[in-house]
Amino acid sequence: MTYAFTQDVPIDATAYDKIIAELGPDPAPGFVVHLAIARPEGGLRYIDVWETEADFEKFAEERLHPVVHPMLHAVFGDDMPPEPERVPLDVIHVWTA
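The chain above was modelled as a monomer; its predicted structure follows.
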């Protein structure tokens, strides 16, 4: 079942670019599409679509968190903020190039 969500994150484009560089160019199994857009009030909004929620969870644990957590730890030390809320989206249709 397709899994999609939106998530607002308190980082800027520079921090995002560092994360993307560390993740590398290879897409994860089950990945469909990821958008990162600037929010007028600051930070970024992610819109993600995955084949399944399990695909995203595996990617987050194996690739995303090992990149993001050290970056957050460098800024916040042991007082790291909680993971931003993921708001599920009801997918009607996905059209890609």
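The mean pLDDT is 94.
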